[in-house]
């Protein structure tokens, strides 16, 4: 079976469609190496880097439950230079997506100036949606602030740049944020980050299952698949065609990967389930997707990508 699974974002070609969600299996160079060396991973994505390294929020900050997870990691990472060095020194292998986050607009601009001045010419992804930095809002819920940042960024940034978005839940909000995003030469949107500020209670202890923010954290995992698919679909229907989509959220099975691509995803990323099962999951999902394509008579992902039919 020779099924063609590929994607292209900003003239970067990906051999495959599966990647890790930023935050999972990507904080250290050895974790990134494992992704880089796995033939079923189309591209490693780094942990979102801030200017300075961070320990993240107090623990426990991650909890898995049936078909889901809740986290308030708080952007633990080894600092921007660590990840920039990694992507710069692994330029001849497969593509790597450099994810960055910031605690302020000034920091965001500083980081992107550093990327612009660097030898890294791959895809950078700006995380505007982390729900877990104590005292900081999720920027991409503020459409004016998002517009202001992107306007400043694209006045100097000339390399491929995408953004990671939070989930939206209102069709008017999809219209509004898409109108902002369509003004800019974004390489892609990554949709969705976790559903921010959920709360899960342990009935035995009568306390939240995670410590930071009084137990409030981002909800991920298979439970959020409908929200993730709706966001991928809503953006595919609204964004300029040259803004590609990385579908993130809810992926547990090859059927979920197929659904993401059908809704319009170019690449599909996996977080909670990758954390649960480890990187052998990529082979299983890849083989599962090949089987689905075989059963349905598709030879290439392009034959069904964005092909969601009317009921
Ligand atoms: C975190 O580090 O808190 C998770 C990353 C994110 O939600 O962007």
From TrEMBL:
Which enzyme class, named as a word? oxidoreductase
User: Subunit arrangement?
Assistant: Homodimer.
What this protein is called in its record is dihydroorotate oxidase (fumarate)
Q: Which InterPro entries match?
A: Aldolase_TIM, DHO_dehydrogenase, DHOD_1A, Dihydro_DH_chainA_dom2, Dihydroorotate_DH_1_2, Dihydroorotate_DH_cat, Dihydroorotate_DH_CS
UniProt-recorded Gene Ontology molecular function terms: dihydroorotate dehydrogenase (fumarate) activity
Location of the protein in the cell: Cytoplasm
UniProt-listed Enzyme Commission number(s): 1.3.98.1
Provide the reaction this enzyme catalyses: (S)-dihydroorotate + fumarate = orotate + succinate
Q: Does the keyword Cytoplasm apply?
A: yes
